[in-house]
Design brief:
elongated; 2 domains; 9 helices; Arc Repressor Mutant, subunit A; Tetracycline Repressor, domain 2; 208 residues; 0% strand; mainly alpha; DNA-binding; homodimer
Chain lengths: 208, 208
DNA sequence: ATCGTTTTAGCACGTTCATGCTATTAAGCC
DNA sequence: GGCTTAATAGCATGAACGTGCTAAAACGAT
C-alpha cells in the first residue's frame, strides 16, 4: 500500500496556503506555483488533489464558510439556552448578543485574516458563477442570523415596540457588513474595537 | 502639426474601457490587450498615453473618485444653503439629507456601475501601496461627510441629545458602507430602494 | 506640396501561467 | 523482500501577459 497521507488534511493545508497568499499579496497573485511554494509542495503534488486551479479556489471558499459557520453555530448553541432560560438580566442578555454578532468582526488575528480573504473572494465571486451561489447562501444566512437575533429579543420583550422588525434586520445586517468592511480594510480609520462599540450602541438603541 | 486628439479625453476613454471590463468580467480580466480591444485602440496607442499598465489603473481610480466627489460636492453645495436658511420643515430637511447620503447608494445604473468598480478597486488597493493612499483619503472623506451631516442636524437642533455624536458618525458611515456593499453585490437580497429606506429610517431614529 | 510632430500600429522578447503527461518515490500487505 | 498503489516531482506545451522598440500614418503649419 502507498504512502499514507490524510487527503482531507492535505486539502485544507493547500487551502491555507491560498489564504496566506491572498492575505500577503492579494487575490491577483494566487497561482498554482505560488500555492505550491507557500505549501512547500510541488505543483504536481497539488494537482494530485485538485485537477483544476478553479477547484482549489472553490474548495478554499467552502472551507472558509465552514469555519466561520462552525464558530457561529457553537456560539449560538451556547447562547440560545441561556436566553431561553430567562435567568439573565436584560443587560447581560444584550452583552451576550453583542458577543454573538461580534463574532463576525475582525476582533482577533484569525478573524481579521478571514475577513480579508472573505472580502477578496467577494469581488471574485461577482463574475464567477461557480462561487456566486456560495455567497448567495452565506449572505442570506447572515441575514437570517440577524433576524433570529432580533426575534429572540422581541420574544423576550426586550425590543422597542415602535420598530419595523424587517427593516431593522436589514439595517443590522448592513451595519455589521459595513463595520467589518471598514475595520478590516481601514483599521486606522475604524478600529475593530471601535466597531464593536458601535454595534453595542446600536443594539442598545433597539432595546426597550 | 500633428493629428489633433484631446489627450485628457482619450485617457478618460481608456479609463472607461477599464471600467467596462471590470464590470463585465471582473478586475482579474483587466489587461492591456483587453482594454485596447474594449476601447477600439491598438495596444501601442494606449501605451502612448500610459507608459505602464499600473498607470492606467491608478488613473482610472482617480477618475472614479473625481466623478463621485464632484457629484457629492454639487449636491452638498445646493443643500447647505437651503438648510442654513432654516426655511425647511424638519421632515423636508431630513429628506434632503437622505438624498445627499443616498448619492452613495447604487440607485441608478451609473452609480451601480461605480459601486461595483469601487469595490473591485478596494480589494486591489489593500496590497497595492500606489492605490492605498487614494482609498485612505476617500474613506476619511466619507467619514467627514457623515460628520458634517450629523453636525448640521445637531446645530439645527434636529438631533436627539442623548447621542454620542462621534459614535453615530462611525455608525452612519458603516451603515452606508454596508448598504452599498449589499445592494451592489447582492441586490436580490437587498434592493437599492430598500437600502434607501433603511437609511431613511436610520436618520429618522436619530431625530429629536 | 512638403515637412515636422503627434498619434497609431504592431512586432518581438522574456515571463508567467494552467495543465497534460510521464517518471520517481514511499509505504504497507502478501 | 518484492508488489501494488497512492503520493510526489517535474518536464513540455501553448496561451496570455507587459513592455521595449521600430515603422507607418495622419494632420496642420509653412
Amino acid at each position: 500500500m502507498p504512502k499514507i497521507v490524510d487527503p482531507a488534511q492535505r486539502r485544507e493545508a493547500i487551502a491555507d496556503a491560498l489564504f496566506a497568499i491572498v492575505l500577503k499579496q492579494g487575490f491577483a497573485k494566487v497561482s498554482l506555483r505560488a500555492i505550491a511554494e507557500e505549501a512547500g509542495l510541488a505543483i504536481g503534488s497539488i494537482r494530485h488533489y485538485f485537477t483544476t486551479a478553479e477547484g482549489i479556489v472553490r474548495f478554499a471558499l467552502e472551507t472558509l464558510v465552514a469555519r466561520v459557520s462552525a464558530r457561529l453555530e457553537t456560539r449560538l448553541a451556547s447562547l440560545l439556552p441561556q436566553l431561553d432560560a430567562g435567568s439573565l438580566s436584560g443587560g447581560a442578555a444584550k452583552e451576550l448578543t453583542v458577543d454573538l454578532l461580534a463574532e463576525l468582526l475582525p476582533l482577533d488575528e484569525v478573524r481579521r485574516q478571514e475577513s480579508v480573504v472573505w472580502l477578496a473572494f467577494e469581488e471574485t465571486a461577482r463574475t464567477d458563477p461557480a462561487l456566486a451561489d456560495v455567497f448567495e447562501t452565506s449572505v442570506r444566512g447572515s441575514r437570517k442570523l440577524m433576524a433570529r437575533t432580533l426575534e429572540s429579543m422581541s420574544h423576550r420583550g426586550a425590543l422597542r415596540v415602535d420598530l419595523d422588525l424587517d427593516l431593522e434586520v436589514d439595517a443590522l445586517a448592513a451595519l455589521i457588513d459595513g463595520l467589518t468592511l471598514r475595520s478590516t480594510l481601514h483599521p486606522e480609520v475604524l478600529t475593530p474595537e471601535r466597531a464593536r462599540e458601535v454595534l453595542s450602541a446600536h443594539l442598545e438603541q433597539l432595546r426597550k
